[in-house]
Specification:
With about 750 residues, this protein is an alpha/beta fold. About 45% of the residues lie in helices and about 15% in strands. The structure holds phosphoenolpyruvate and magnesium ion.
């Protein structure tokens, strides 16, 4: 007699399964009992369980088929009905099995007398690891409720067989076409370099520890509370996004919101709980069913929405299970490639640098701070990989080619071999640049170019010697704030600055006062101080925060002055917009200097004050400001975003405007000309200085001081040696006066004609 509801049927089976699983018998004995229970409850003469072993689906237990066939009948994935279910990760429900085109008759089983057939995949980590099938003498299709009950049971089975170690978890041969074979993904190269490792999801999938519920009411309550919490989170994110404060995109959040409030989703989870599953298992069960349904619909738009739902489902699972940590909090086990939709710089810094080999993002752009941090860490990054997380499983082997923006997922041995060859070539290239450590960057026409590095952490210091750079042209002091759980105390700041200066020896270090805000959010500062911002990049950040909370700047000034006792202190202020801001910040330092003088502390020999040119407005004051400055440092990352009115972190704008456009070149040229009479040093410390073509353009403007990412020092030193600065200046003057259709093309042609490799 068919059961009334899927929940009742599943519950009846789960109750018995609960007892069987708690018993002390062997896994095989348990499977033998389980097929009996399922067969009896679903009123089926036959119930069989096939499990994936050594790439084949092996009959492990049966009620109704010949017992001699157990462990004898084996099917390849894709072969027969059972193999088809595993391959497609899809259920089948047939009134007449033999009429199906994939039907394969196996005489040893004695199944010829059974007409109807229904089977569902046993899924683990999005792979089919087995099949549970029922058969019936009479030709009838099974009721939908029976199939659903079978699917719930398959979920419990997946736990049982995994716990008993019955299937090979790493078996990648047979689990169906989905997420198994090699695949090549093309994204946008954000940080060059190549790496290999296992995929680690920044937000890991939750491991479900208990599948069968002890107390259904308690499980309902848990899901109810989790939904509540998740909706609050989504509402908060959405309200921030409306003001442009969150990194997530508005469309995505709207979809999230729609799903979070979708009654159907909650109802289906409740039904799964009714059938006897725990809250976690119920969420996963509903998710599996949605996955199966969506797989049948070939619509890229829907597939996207599917990823959003998957995301949300994982969020719900994390809340309900209390497994809230990121992969960083669990620690990396081996060489890892981090997979995320997007990341903040602080989140990236939480990972173990020795094991983190690469980062791949669904979003990302060249000047997003997370990308800058990764570049400084020498970690290749590929971004703009839409729907990435749906194409990978945790633990998949990945080959990341950050030079070309290509990722090979689950590579074949020959792909891995070819990659190894590239790896070797890359190592050669790195060795070539490392060997340039002692090369002094002098141009072909004998002019010295200063090549410094950008840094931000104590760990960066060895790079100064490894690259043979002229100093640190930008030390981003906020990194220490980003990696701390609380505001770093003055003593800690002093210690860091002192260590940095000591490691640098005679070479100069330019400390930039904290640039927080924008995409560098400090949770401990935000709470009490900042309201939601409509546009944080243009909001209360950098010097604006420092001047308003002058306690922050005072502490930092004290720390820097004390750390630089007996040496020259170079300090610069970010986001100076009007001259008075520079004056006010300098005054904070000067008063700290007086304070320390009275206390007879060892003071710096000199303090050199500089300003960053990042906000276009300050360019109009340069004739006034330049005489007060010891140096000017052009932060092209922010400057270009403001000149183009194009968010530096926006994935859709990531490639839209060119750093070597006429607008930027003309703007910078005016800056250089305005400052020249005052003899103030000009450095470019934005990311563009580390790219050869861009650096060539900057040299064409007369800029001979660059502060760049450490990995670029070798390539830029090499470039300097190939360039006649006088010649590129003449060429650039011509282009500025009469702009070519594309400045980039003109530069590339010029470089090619002069035998310069600007790749
Ligand atoms: C810049 O804006 O170019 C810069 C160097 O500062 P940051 O990237 O830290 O904002
Ligand atoms: Mg900046």
């Amino acid at each position: 007699m068919p059961p009334q509801t899927a929940a009742a049927a599943a519950r009846a089976i789960l109750n018995s399964l609960h007892e069987i699983m708690a018993s002390r018998s062997s896994a095989q004995a348990k499977l033998n009992q389980i097929v009996e229970v399922i067969g009896a409850t679903l009123d089926s003469e036959v119930c069989s369980i096939y499990l994936l072993r050594e790439g084949m689906l092996e009959l492990y237990a049966t009620r109704g088929l010949n017992q001699q066939a157990v462990h004898v009948t084996r099917m390849a994935v894709g072969e027969g009905l059972v193999g088809t279910i595993a391959m497609n990760i899809e259920s089948l429900n047939l009134a007449e099995a033999a009429a199906h085109p994939d039907f394969a008759f196996r005489p040893e089983t004695g199944e010829e007398k059974f007409h109807s057939f229904a089977g569902v995949p046993i899924v683990r980590r999005q792979r089919a690891v087995g099949v549970v099938a029922v058969q019936h003498v009479e030709p009838r299709r099974y009721e939908e409720v029976e199939i659903e009950a079978l699917q719930t049971v398959a979920m419990v089975l997946s736990e049982l067989i995994a716990n008993a170690g019955l299937v090979d978890e790493d078996d990648t041969h047979g689990s169906g076409a989905h997420l198994t074979g090699p695949e090549r993904l093309q994204g946008m190269a954000l940080v060059k370099g190549i790496a290999s490792g296992a995929a680690v999801f920044h937000q890991p999938r939750v491991t479900i520890e208990q599948v069968v519920a002890d107390d259904i009411e308690a499980e309902r309550q848990r899901v109810y509370l989790a939904f509540d919490k998740m909706r609050q989170q989504i509402d908060r994110m959405a309200s921030q996004a409306e003001f442009g404060a969150a990194g997530e995109h508005v469309e995505v959040l709207q979809t999230y919101k729609m799903f979070a409030y979708d009654e159907g989703w909650g109802r289906r989870i409740n039904e799964a709980i009714d059938s006897g599953l725990t809250a976690e298992a119920a969420i996963e069960r509903v998710q599996q069913r949605t996955r199966m349904r969506m797989r049948q619909i070939d619509d890229p738009l829907l597939a996207d929405r599917m990823h959003d739902l998957e995301d949300l489902s994982n969020r719900l699972l994390r809340i309900v299970s209390g497994q809230l940590g990121t992969a960083a909090s669990m620690g990396l086990k081996g060489d890892a490639i981090l997979v995320a939709r997007n990341l903040g710089p602080a989140e990236l810094l939480e990972y173990d640098r020795r094991r983190l080999k690469g980062v791949i993002l669904e979003e990302g752009s060249l000047t997003a701070h997370v990308v800058i941090v990764a570049r400084a860490m020498g970690i290749p990054v590929i971004g703009r990989l839409h729907g990435l997380r749906g194409k990978l499983r945790e633990g998949d082997q990945l080959l990341v080619d950050g030079d070309r923006g290509v990722i090979d997922v689950r590579p074949t041995p020959s792909m891995a071999e070819a990659f190894e060859a590239r790896f070797a070539k890359n190592r050669e290239r790195l060795a070539h640049y490392a060997a340039m450590r002692d090369v002094v960057p002098v141009s072909k026409d004998g002019q010295r170019v200063t090549v410094m590095i950008n840094a931000g952490l104590r760990d960066d210091m060895p790079l100064l010697n490894l690259t043979g750079a002229d100093g640190i042209g930008l030390f981003r002091t906020e990194f220490q704030f980003l990696v701390s759980a609380t505001l770093p105390a003055r003593e800690r700041q002093t210690r860091l600055y002192r260590d940095v200066l000591e490691a640098a020896g005679d070479r100069p270090v330019v400390f930039r006062t904290v640039d927080i805000g924008g995409d560098k959010v400090l949770p401990y500062l935000r709470q009490d101080d900042s309201a939601l911002e409509e546009n944080p990049a243009m909001g209360w950040r950098a010097l604006r925060v420092a001047l308003d909370r002058d306690g922050l700047l005072k502490v930092q000034a004290r720390a820097l002055i004390e750390a630089a006792g007996g040496r020259t202190l170079n300090v610069m202020f970010p986001m100076v917009t009007e001259p008075w801001e520079f004056d006010a910040a300098k005054a904070v330092f000067e008063s700290q200097l007086q304070f320390l003088k009275k206390r007879k502390k060892l003071l710096p020999e000199a303090i050199r004050y500089g300003a960053m040119l990042e906000v276009p407005a300050i360019a109009e004051y340069l004739d006034i400001l330049a005489p007060r400055l010891s140096f000017l440092s052009i932060g092209t990352n922010d400057l270009t975003q403001f000149l183009f009115a194009a968010d530096r972190g926006h994935p859709k704008l990531a490639e839209r405007y060119d750093w070597v456009s006429t607008a930027i070149m003309r703007f910078l040229s005016r800056v250089v000309r305005t400052v020249a009479p005052y003899g103030t040093d000009i450095t470019v410390c934005g990311e563009m200085g580390g790219r050869r073509l861009e650096a060539l353009a900057l040299m064409g403007l007369g800029i001979t001081r660059l502060s760049i990412t450490p990995a670029s020092v070798g390539p830029i030193k090499e470039l300097v040696g190939q360039v006649d600065l006088g010649a590129i200046r003449t060429a650039m003057d011509g282009w500025l006066a009469q702009p070519p259709p594309s400045m980039r093309v003109a530069l590339l042609e010029w470089a090619a004609n002069h035998g310069i490799d600007c790749d």
